[in-house]
Amino acid sequence: MKLHFHGAAQTVTGSMHLLEVNGHALLIDCGLFQGPRRESFERNRHFPFDPRKIDAVLLTHAHIDHSGNLPNLVLQGFDGPIYCTSATAELTHIMLLDSGHIHERQAEAVSWRNAQKGLEPVDPLYTQEDAARVQPLLRGIPYDELFEPVPGVLTRFVEAGHILGSASVPLEVNEKGHTRTLWFSGDIGRRRLPLLRDPQLPAQVDALVMESTYGDKPHRNPEEAYEEMRQVITRTIQRGGKVIIPAFAVGRTQELVYNLNMMYENGDLPEVPVYVDSPLAVNVTDIFKKYPDCYDAETLQWIERGHPALEFRLLKYITSLDESKALNAREDPMIIISASGMAEFGRIVFHIRWNIENPRNTIMIVGWQAPGTLGRRLADREPFVKILGETFQVQAEISTIGGLSAHAGQDMLMEYARAAHAQKKGVFLVHGEEKAALPLQAKLEESGLKRVFYPAQGAVLEM
Ligand SMILES: [Zn+2]
Predict the structure, then answer these.
(1) Spacing, Cα 84 to ligand 1 middle (Å)
(2) Which residues have CB under 8 Å from 23's CB, separation 6+?
(3) Domain count of the fold of the chain
(4) 433/299 same-domain check
(5) Could you tell me the distance, in angstroms and rounded to a whole number, from the CA of residue 357 to the centre of ligand 1?
(6) Do residues 88 and 187 touch, judged by C-beta distance below 8 A?
(7) Distance, CA 267 to ligand 1 centroid (Å)?
(8) Cα(454) to centroid(ligand 1), Å
(9) Which of 19, 319, 329, 453 satisfies CB 3.0 to 4.6 Å to 279 for a cystine?
(10) Domain check: are 390 and 267 in the same one?
(11) Is 234 exposed, middle or buried (0-12, 13-18, 19+ CB in 10 A)?
(12) What is the CATH number of the domain that holds 399?
């Protein structure tokens, strides 16, 4: 059995692992690598294996850095089943359509700029039509139901508590009379996140492949994040400004809506209109409403008491572009939540562009930002940023709220890794930059774990 680390190796995006066993090939996640345009285009277009030789895919969750390169896999000849939870299947379909749309728009914009310079047009990474070809291959499987994606591999989806439908995958691999156990964490959530159930810890396995996004530090507790967010919003409203929040349409947006719902319910915030400006987030919210069986007990009680979790009086979901543009003409204080989460594309880019030079406003960064993205440049407090080809001086307040992450912090990752007792083959840290993974590796070793690795792109584990 061979495990190839083909993505999210020593970086955060592009999750992709290939397991070769009994002459079959099983891909675990097929994420989009996100970074500078040309580099990411090349990496996403060229798989380090032949997509026609993949028998099946296990998909841990719908986030684009785990699912976003499936359209290319299918374009290049993969036609096997893609197993995931039912909620993930629904979310992935609409996320990929949205992603295809974004790639088309981006290619149009670059081609237009190229034309001005007498250069050739560029192709989109994939189109919406390409993305639609993934859906017929998606197979929704209930949590905790055993199944055999390829001969000799037994698996099930276990609650990962990260976003709706997110799962970890334990694998029992039987080859030539030997049994090996592996556990892929996928992205690990946190305890007490709004809406979602808590992540399930692994049982003892031979090898653990674990994310390490926040391996360098424990998170502040969610109550502190809630309080900080409340303070930032309050002072922005008091000075008559707008709060602009880039947020992933899946997960983060619903979490923010839930928090704001609580703040208003508790009378903790001055009343201003709240807009979720993202057609995708609207569709995602509808899917959230279809899967109350994925909610935690607290949310279910809240709903039973007659409060819809994702609706409140001041909240409006916006789909039309005209309504979106109309927000920019208004001067009154408001809260705008819009995608993409790293402010690389989508309507949020226009909201930031429009509001960044007004010191009354706040741009609130509420999640991890990939290097090279606008979100990262803002979070790094760069004084000038380039948006859609134009340079802007950052005059709005920039606030970064750390504790809202949907990823486990260092303490939870430690607990997770230790629960797996993966002393035979070890713990393999993925989905983390060096500055996060190396301190976690050191800390795990300090705690007595002997074999903790941080595999490079293309590394192979033989078992
Ligand atoms: Zn994720």
Answers:
(1) 14
(2) none
(3) 2
(4) no
(5) 31
(6) no
(7) 32
(8) 19
(9) 319
(10) yes
(11) middle
(12) 3.40.50.10890
Clarify whether residues 387 and 265 are in a common domain: yes
Threshold 0.85, pTM exceeds: yes
| Cα of 250 from ligand 1 centre, angstroms | 9
240 CA to centre of ligand 1 in angstroms:
34
pLDDT tens-digit readout, 356-390: 999 999 999 998 888 889 999 999 999 999 999 89
Same structural domain, 208 and 85: yes
**Per-residue pLDDT tens for 177-209?**
999 999 999 999 999 888 899 999 999 999 999
Q: Ligand 1 centroid vs 325 CA: distance in angstroms?
A: 29
Residue 293, amino acid? D
* CA distances for 79 relative to 14, 54, 98, 294, angstroms: 20, 8, 21, 29
pLDDT tens-place string over residues 313-338: 999 999 999 999 999 999 999 999 99
Domain boundary residue, one of 404, 427, 445: 404
User: What's the 18 CA to ligand 1 centre distance in angstroms?
Assistant: 19
CA 165 – ligand 1 centroid, Å: 11
pLDDT tens digits, one per residue of 51-70: 999 999 999 999 999 999 99
> In which domain, by residue range, is 256 found?
222-404
Give me ligand 1 centre to Cα 326, in Å.
Answer: 32
- Check whether residue 382 and residue 367 sit in a common domain: yes
Per-residue burial over 418-432, b if 16 or more Cβ lie within 10 Å, else e, is: bbbebeebbbbbbbb
Tell me: the pLDDT tens digits for 74-103?
999 999 999 999 999 999 999 999 999 989
Å from CA of 239 to ligand 1 middle? 35
CA of 76 to the centre of ligand 1 (A): 25
Contact 399, 232 (CB under 8 A): yes
Same domain, 271 and 150: no
On whether both 380 and 417 belong to a single domain, the answer is no
CA distances from 430 to 30, 61, 408 (A): 14, 16, 13
CATH number at residue 130: 3.60.15.10
Last residue of a domain, one of 404, 432, 453: 404
Residue of higher predicted confidence among 225 and 30:
30
Cα–ligand 1 centroid distance for 248 (angstroms): 10
